[in-house]
Amino acid sequence: MSDKKRILLIDNEAGLCRMMEQILLDHGYLVRFYTSPQKAVEEFSASAWDLVISDIKMPGMSGLEVLQAVRAKQHDIPVIMITAYATVEMSIQALRKGAYDMLTKPFEPDELVYRVKNALQQRQLLAENRELRAELEDKFRFENIIGACEGLKSVLDRVGKVAVRDTSILITGESGTGKELIAQAVHYNSPRREKRFVAINCGALPENILESELFGYKKGAFTGASESRIGLLETANGGTLFLDEAGNLPMNVQKTLLRFLQEKEFNRLGDTTPTRVDVRVLSATNSDLKEAIKCGSFREDLYYRLNVVNIHLPPLRDRCSDIPLLAAHFIQLQNQKFTTSIKGFESEALRILSDFSWPGNIRQLKNVIEACMAVEAGEYISRDTLTQFIETDSVISHPHIEAAANAAIQDIPYTAALEHFEADLLKNLLKKHGGNIDAAAREAGMNMVTMYRKIKKYGIRKEEY
User: Fold this and answer.
1) Per-residue pLDDT tens digits for 335-361
2) Quick check: 343 and 413 in contact, CB under 8 A?
3) By three-state DSSP, how is residue 462 classified?
4) What is the reported pLDDT for 256?
5) Bridge pairing between strands 169-172 and 280-285
């Protein structure tokens, strides 16, 4: 299939059409022209064209009517309007109806090609943005968060309920438990998903820089402020601001943030005029904020503003049954990234992996697997490779986890192990709910469409549940 861009020309002057056709053909485009706007609209089909160029003044059907008709069939198709009688009023009318650009007769060939390139580049950027947003929304769907233990399922159930409500959430848990992942899941499952998710680590910046990063500043506010700059709160307008390690917020920043949460406005540094924005604030901490309040390092009123809803993430040592699943996921990601073919862990290495205490939680697990895959020469990660990166004296005994993991995963690739686990989980849920797919889907934390798709994928028959 050709990757050449396809351009549709519509003008009642056949000579002009042939001239434009030749210019565009010479620049590598596929072109077809119509001298009848009615026939062009009648035969126009969505996805057949990348760009439409139409005259405005034509007998029987105006260019503005053509514009509306083709955009009704394909809303994102860029349309360039051509006219010999350009006026401000006409241009505004065409742009309001969705025209991408206006081209005034007579025009030079270079100008036509320039306008066409711009329109096609804009369309490509919009398409890429849509694809990226779709990928992000898919990535942060709740059913794509790895884990099946009861502690995580209860967390995701709570997240699903509060995501749609425009309220502040404080996510707590040890470092490396996935607090930012949960914040992103909240954002991409909320009504704000079309807007930006902006994150800042409050513990990584000095006090004066953090304040200017969050709230912005006016030109001349301090030495070196040679121009005004908006802060992250304004950048996130309409979307979500995530404050990671919020326990490290300095007192002066806490005061300004509290005012924003109460009044929905703040002052840039050096500015006396308030700035209003619409932002949902999510925050996370691995410290004890109640203890910080007692010590006087955190404002109690701000705590209650941030902690309208609390979501606490369990440490990985309390999610031992999820370790094989997480490991399979990270191995798959690394295989895709580096085109490697590591299949999993040897049984003894898997036992150590499952019984390790993981003080750095999921982040540490991910880093250890990446390190193991970088040095492992075989198809399976060995005990000797694994123990280069974790201390075996930190291993704790979980014989039931070891038995389950070995029974399910020993000597088979990790991707297959993950699928076996998921298929068994779905069968058990369907049995538990007497074959009620809706109830089973709810407990699994997935929607009905996904549930049906997975039942079909794993070939689960009715007699099995």
Assistant:
1) 998 999 999 999 899 889 988 999 999
2) yes
3) helix
4) 93
5) parallel
User: What is the enclosing helix (H) or strand (E) of 244?
Assistant: strand 240-244
**Using CA atoms, how far apart are residues 150 and 163, in angstroms rounded to an integer?**
20
Angle at 359 between CA 315 and CA 241, to 5 degrees: 55
- Cβ atoms within 10 Å of 318's Cβ, excluding its own: 13
Return the half-sphere exposure (C-beta side, CA atoms, 13 A cut-off) of residue 91: 9
Other beta carbons less than 10 A from residue 372's beta carbon: 25
**pTM of the model as a whole:** 0.62
* Bridging pattern class, strands 275-276 and 265-266: antiparallel
Please say whether the beta carbons of 268 and 235 come within 8 A. Answer: no
Fold of 140-314: Rossmann fold (3.40.50)
Domains 6-134 and 140-314 share a fold: yes
Q: Is the pLDDT of residue 311 over 50?
A: yes
What is 6-134's CATH number?
3.40.50.2300
Q: Which two tokens stand for residue 116?
A: 């066409």
pLDDT per residue over 42-91, tens digit each?
999 888 999 999 999 899 899 999 999 999 999 889 999 998 876 667 77
Residues 6+ apart with CB under 8 A from 7: 24, 29, 30, 31, 32, 49, 50, 51, 52, 53, 116
106 Cβ neighbours under 8 A, 6+ residues apart: 84
How many residues are given for the chain? 465
CA dihedral 424, 425, 430, 431 (to 10 degrees): 70
Q: What CATH code is assigned to 317-464?
A: 1.10.8.60
